[in-house]
Design goal:
By secondary structure, the protein is of the alpha+beta class. It has 20 helices and 17 strands.
Length: 570
Amino acid sequence: MPSLTRKLIKGRPYYYLRHCQRIDGKPKIVKTVYLGSADQLIARFAAPPTVPEPQAVDLAAFADVAALFDLAEQLQLVALIDAQLPKRDQGLSVGQYLLLAAINRATHPTSKTRLVDWYQRTVLTRLLPASADQLSSQSFWNHLSHITDADIDAIENQLSQRLIERFALSLRTLVYDGTNFFTYINTTNPATLPARGHNKQKRNDLRQVNLGLLVSTDFHIPLFHKVDTGNVNDVTEFKTITQELRLRYAQLARHCEHITLIFDKGNNSPEAFATLDDQTGFHFIGSLVPTQHTDLLAIPRRRFHPLAGERLKDSLAYRTRKVVFGRERTVLVTYNENLLVGQMQGLEANLEKTRTKLRELQHGLRRWREGRVQGGRKPTVEGVRHQVERILSAQFMKKLIAYELSVGKLPELSFHTNTQAYAELVRTQLGKTILFTDLESCSDEEIVLGYRAQSTIESAFRDMKNPHFLGWFPMFHWTDPMIRVHAFYCVLALLLSSLLQRTLHQKGHDLSLPRMLELLGGIQETTVIFAPQGQEKKPRTATCLTRISEEQQELMQALDLQRYQAKKAG
């Protein structure tokens, strides 16, 4: 035990702290600490305590990356990938590279050249140690550029099994849809995946890549994805994917005897339904293009009946049977007042925009007739007609706006809104959706709610186009294999994030993906570095979390993230 000892040296008293311990039954001094003279001790205790002066503060992303890392650990994601893509036992494995890329995409999308900068500002330096050289862009692609489609399919198959077994993921309804992502890949680049097509972000001037995704309606967790050429439309893509879905179904059906696939009208084709109809036990709910079924649109609304349930209180339906794509199907024409209001708002906005463009064209022609335009080519009737047709290319505009071109010395444009066509459109088509299914025994309510589950994949695509979280962008890759790998770790990012959202929901926290990642991203780890004092050679540090809100504290506790905090200050 410690004791205070006084020594006289040259007649002056000095004080020491001695630590005594019994060894082999005998007391022995094991440590002596010099405290100083009496005056020094008095001065030390009389003076106010000195506060170490902080030199710097390091911030590291904590809760978001730790939560995603934890889910990957529960899935044993790295081991699963490494079993499919083994390498020599040195440096980072392929699975570790893909996990780092997926967490980066989910929390703070960056290019591969800036991956190391992001990594060094996260607690992953502690959870998944790596050197700057290992995270260089060159090293990253040296490890990942050899991944094949077969490797990705095998990994996704095994991941699906684990999600079912370990997280009890529901497979009763699955949703398929496709989207595209524009790129800045040069026209002369030989890659075959990027191609110009109808871009859903209105960037038809750029080459794009298509992505088809099969997700669970249970928090849009991806089970299968396919990257395709950018100029392939949804119908053609779905036609080829149904063959792969058929093979995938055989594996998934072992865990669920009844699987319903949900998709929208943009994927319809006779070939695709021939494949689906041949697959025993694979059911579907889809929608039809209204203008291709005018007989159904003509059914008066008085023949519709209300749907039961709070979620469908504003909906009506008419049920019948009709031959669609070679077989008689159950068809449900639905009417929703809220959908009508939304469509009319969009229609009015498009009408106003179209009228404005036509008035501008009228004004330009008038200036020509009045001789106020000098130089340039005079407008011709065919040229003006082409401009008008382009202006009227928006949905319903050709039906709702009638125009005339007078043929004279110079063309003159007049137009008006066809109010009768407008009223007919509102009466017969707006607010209506035509659904069809092979599920004859399902109620009208089950069919409508099943189809509405399609919003899950639309939400997933919106999240993947978010510039701050889960971003597909930036993508600076220019070869087909690199683009496929890029798509794979983006889908892995969606998988981990959606699984995290589902986990929090089960614990009583309902948050959108962006809001969830924003809240967790605000919980950072702070390391304060203090200036060395006295005989210290190294600076002291203290680590803690940043100040967080009550909601963030609840998320921390729900996910038990405290176990990933730094163990001690050094």
